[in-house]
Design brief:
Length: 257
Amino acid sequence: MRKGRLANKVVIITGAASGIGKGTAILFAEEGANLILVDRDMEKLEGTAEEIRLKGGDCRTVCGDVSLTRTAAEVVETAVREFGGLDVVFNNAGIMPTADILGCTEETWDQVIDVNLKSMFLMCKQAIPEMLKRGGGSIINTSSVMAHLTEPGYTAYTASKAGILGLTKEIAVTYAEKGIRCNSISPGWVDTDMNMKLAEEMGGMDKLYPVIKAQQPLGRMATSREIAYGVLFLASDESVVVTGSCLNIDGGCTAAI
C-alpha cells in the first residue's frame, strides 16, 4: 500500500473515539490526512488523537453531540479555521439499542434516528458549502448490513440505517456534476465496542461466534482497520467515478441465504 493517498486532504470523522471511526482515523493519518475527530467521549477521543500525534499525524478534536446543529457547525468551522477548508467527511457515529416496534419507545426511536441519521443530514448540510468552495469532495456514510436484511428486535436501528442509503443516493445525484461524491458503507460483524458489549451480554465471545459464523461466511469479525481500507478507497481520488453506491464490507453476509 503506497502512502499519501490522502495527502493534504482535510477530513472530518465522527464517532472517532473507538471502533471503525478510530481505525479509520489512524489509517487516514498514515495516508497524510489532516483530521478533525469528533465524538461525545472526550477521554477516548483524546486517546485516538494521541495515537495519531505519536505517529506524526495532525489532528484536532471536537467533543459534542452529532445530533445537534451547533456541533456540526463547530466541526466544519474547526476544519476551515485550522486547515483552510474541507475535502472529506466520514459520517460514522451511531448507536444500536435493541427493541422491537412494540417495545421501542418514542424517546428511543427519536434518539436513534437523531444520532444515526439526522446527524448525517446536519453534517452534510454544513459541509457541502465548504466542499463546493474547493470544487468538490467525498462524503462517506456508515450504514449497516441491517439496512439490507435484519432480525427481530432492531426497529429503530434498521430504519435509521436504511434511511442512510436513501440520503446518500439523494446527495450523490444532486451534487454529482458539482464534484461532490457521496457513498455509504455497510459493515457486517466488526470488532467494535458495541459488539464486544453484545458478547458480554450473551455470556462471552464463545456464545457470539456461532452467531457470527452462521451469518457471515467469512467466519469471523472484520477488524476496524479492514473496514477502514474500504472507507479509504471511497475517500481517495481512486474512486473518482464512484458515487451513490453502497460498499458492503461484510464478509459475505449480504450474499448468503
